């Protein structure tokens, strides 16, 4: 044991310059420790652990082992406490009216939506804050502490902008439960985003007057500026071109048609539609280049002023303005923190692109908003940047030797090689994250990025920035039209690559432990510098392959009880109807990585014969037999359970699943019906040899603050006390 400890201490001492970059990894594990329990944990054990770690650091500072142990425990405690604090400082999820209601609220943002299939124009979606419901029950109640997103009617001619007070009659919906245990949790996302739900307007909205306050007016003016710029872009570049241009320049991406989003996703170019480090780097690079050349053009300034440092500060100022203009999204904020550290390194003469800068950025985001750890942008952006920094640390010398003293052709070859390596490193590091969250692989992402990224950096973004500068002079058309030409080329490339065979390969749902194992292995590979870093390849491989060895359920009952899915070889058979059926079918297809096929009721039979419907003259009843277990499925019932299943059909069955209330049907066997999923959420059923395994969403997620009560009920918004 002593030899193992000595060997480990020797390794840690040899990598002592890399030890600080593991601090955010430990904080991230502390955040995960908070989200894992099925019941809300208490915070005092983390406080005790933090105090104990400080004691270890003080009295064992001169031993590397004590410093490592104390730092790890302290970071775990800080991550747990940060997540606990963020969760408990948010307001509870309110109880929304179950029927159409007249409401009023402060318009925080207005989003132009892409037209739906068959429609000529898209609608608008408003984000409302300080919402009040105009009913006798809600009279005197405080406004909602969370926001609502309302989709206006397509034929609503109302002209509105951020800062207006809106009044509309709408039908509201709370965030839905996961469609399968372990799938995407929209309730948790809404909790940490401060949202209460969504809705759709039932009539034309009206604008009412009211004092919005100085702070609200300031934010509203900024939103109006963004939306005004977006409107002027759309007036010059209609359709998809204008939507993408507005996304790149002001962060308004809701108007991009779904077909084009799918094409960008299939070709591996979806990152171009999300304002992040690439866009910020392009903007700052252009500003730095222009500023430095302008300063160098003045001889007196070039000889006396630190032009390089001044240009870097100008680039940072341009980056801050760009991030604010595009809506302060998380990937852009992460990149801005990194940019600040890079500029600070340039000013102090340190290495600009370093792993420590990335670690500081991760620490800042994890300690100020720990829930970002579970979001796709955080995972993808940090995995990509970490892989790029580590990759070019290893490849720097080979690339220099390849560059040599060659001419233009050799430099062009090095440039193409660098672009390919960049796409390969970033794409490879983020591929399992994309698999886990989007359920697919894009094998041709390197080819598409080789053309699209340089076109964006050298053509589209420079033209867009020039257009912003020309807008005060009403000459933006001169730059927006060439920008549209470049966007046309990128759209053509995305659609072409998306049309290639096997451009999108569906992948089953990745288990949480698989993604965690891959990211941990990636950290081990990238954060160390010695040969033992290669040990990280093993957990990366296991995490990457986990979706293909993870056993998916045989039957899933959706959380509203109206949709039932049956896994049948390479297909997913789905039957039933409900209000959220379209959403549930899409999510189930992504989770299983299989095409969704509608069952032909009342009579049908699966390809392998283990699912048979309509036998014995019972319409809507199916029998699934697999691994010696038999399920009786009632997939169609217009009587709301009043029609009792004949007792003879229940004999020999191991489980009865019904999209309607079971009532007195099949009382002698276990049952799952609409009331079961109302109480427990979605149900996943595995048919195994000798037993049936059932896991409910309630058992998976537990009782956490963001998990709503059965029926998607929240906390009543109690009225304020009456003034005397």
Automatic annotation (TrEMBL):
Pfam families cross-referenced by the UniProt entry: Competence, DUF4131
Superkingdom, natural source: Bacteria
Primary location recorded for the protein, binned into one broad class: membrane
Alphabetic keyword roster: Cell membrane, Membrane, Transmembrane, Transmembrane helix
GO CC term (a single one): plasma membrane
Topology in membrane: Multi-pass membrane protein
Domain DUF4131 stretches: 41-188
Localization: Cell membrane
UniProt keyword Transcription regulation, yes or no: no
Descriptive protein name: DUF4131 domain-containing protein
Domain ComEC/Rec2-related protein intervals: 248-531
Residue spans crossing the bilayer: 19-35, 42-62, 68-85, 236-256, 268-293, 305-325, 355-372, 378-395, 416-438, 444-470, 477-494, 506-527, 534-552
Cited InterPro entries: ComEC_N, Competence_DNA_uptake, DUF4131
């Amino acid at each position: 044991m002593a030899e193992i400890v000595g060997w480990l201490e020797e390794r840690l001492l040899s990598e002592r310059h890399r030890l600080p970059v593991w601090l955010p990894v430990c904080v991230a594990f502390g955040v995960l420790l908070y989200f894992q329990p099925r019941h809300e944990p208490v915070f005092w054990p983390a406080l005790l652990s933090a105090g104990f770690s400080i004691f270890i650091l003080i009295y064992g500072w001169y031993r590397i082992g004590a410093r490592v142990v104390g730092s790890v425990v302290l970071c775990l405690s800080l991550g747990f406490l940060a997540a606990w604090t963020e969760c408990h400082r948010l307001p509870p999820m309110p109880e929304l009216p179950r029927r159409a209601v007249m409401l009023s609220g402060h318009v925080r943002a207005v989003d132009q939506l892409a037209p739906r299939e068959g429609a000529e124009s898209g609608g608008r979606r408003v984000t409302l804050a300080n919402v009040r419901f105009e009913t006798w029950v809600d009279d005197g109640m405080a406004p909602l502490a969370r926001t609502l997103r309302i989709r206006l009617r397509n034929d609503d001619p109302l002209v509105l902008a951020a800062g207006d007070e809106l009044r509309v009659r709408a039908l509201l919906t709370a965030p839905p439960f996961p469609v399968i245990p372990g799938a995407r949790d929209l309730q948790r996302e809404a909790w940490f985003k401060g949202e209460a739900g969504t809705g759709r307007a039932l009539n034309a909205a009206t604008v009412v007057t009211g004092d919005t306050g100085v702070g609200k007016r300031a934010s509203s003016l900024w939103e109006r500026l963004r939306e005004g710029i977006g409107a002027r872009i759309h007036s010059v570049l209609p359709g998809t071109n204008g939507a993408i241009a507005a996304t790149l320049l002001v962060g308004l991406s809701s108007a991009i048609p779904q077909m084009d989003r799918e094409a960008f996703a299939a070709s591996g170019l979806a990152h171009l539609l999300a304002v992040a480090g690439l866009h910020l780097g392009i903007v700052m690079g252009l500003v730095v280049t222009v500023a430095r050349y302008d300063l160098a053009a003045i001889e007196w300034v070039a000889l006396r002023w630190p032009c390089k440092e001044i240009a870097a500060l100008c680039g940072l100022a341009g980056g801050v303005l760009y991030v604010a203009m595009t809506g302060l999204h998380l990937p852009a904020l992460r990149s801005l923190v990194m940019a600040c550290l890079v500029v600070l390194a340039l000013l102090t003469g340190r290495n600009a692109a370093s792993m420590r800068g990335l670690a500081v950025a991760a620490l800042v985001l994890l300690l100020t908003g720990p829930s970002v750890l579970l979001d796709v942008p955080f995972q993808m952006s940090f995995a990509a940047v970490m892989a790029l920094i580590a990759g070019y640390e290893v490849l720097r010398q080979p690339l220099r030797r390849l560059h040599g003293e060659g001419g233009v052709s050799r430099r062009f070859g090095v440039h193409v090689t660098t672009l390919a390596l960049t796409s390969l490193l970033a794409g490879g590091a983020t591929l399992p994250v994309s698999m886990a969250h989007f359920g697919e692989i894009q094998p041709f992402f390197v080819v598409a990025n080789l053309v699209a990224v340089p076109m964006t950096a050298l053509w589209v973004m420079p033209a867009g920035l020039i257009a912003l500068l020309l807008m005060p002079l009403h000459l933006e058309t001169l730059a927006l039209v060439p920008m549209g030409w470049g966007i046309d080329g990128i759209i053509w490339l995305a659609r072409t690559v998306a049309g290639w065979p096997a451009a999108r390969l569906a992948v089953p749902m990745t288990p949480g432990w698989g993604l965690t194992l891959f990211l941990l292995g990636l950290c081990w590979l990238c954060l160390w510098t010695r040969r033992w870093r290669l040990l990280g390849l093993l957990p990366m491989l296991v995490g990457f392959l986990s979706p293909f060895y993870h056993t998916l359920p045989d039957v899933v009952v959706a959380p509203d009880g109206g949709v039932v899915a049956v896994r049948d070889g390479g297909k997913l058979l789905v039957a039933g109807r409900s209000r959220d059926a379209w959403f549930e079918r899409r999510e189930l297809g992504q989770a299983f990585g299989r095409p969704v096929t509608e069952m032909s009721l009342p009579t049908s039979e699966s390809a392998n014969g283990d699912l048979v419907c309509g036998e014995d003259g019972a319409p809507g009843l199916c029998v699934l037999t697999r691994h010696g277990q038999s399920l009786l499925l009632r997939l169609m019932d217009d009587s709301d359970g009043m029609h009792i299943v004949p007792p003879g059909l229940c004999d020999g069955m191991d489980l009865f699943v019904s999209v309607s209330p079971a009532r007195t049907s099949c009382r002698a066997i276990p049952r799952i019906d609409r009331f079961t999923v109302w109480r427990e959420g979605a149900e996943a059923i595995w048919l195994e040899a000798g037993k049936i395994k059932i896991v409910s969403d309630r058992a998976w997620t537990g009782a956490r603050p963001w998990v709503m009560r059965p029926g998607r009920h929240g906390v009543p918004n109690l009225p304020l006390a009456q003034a005397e």
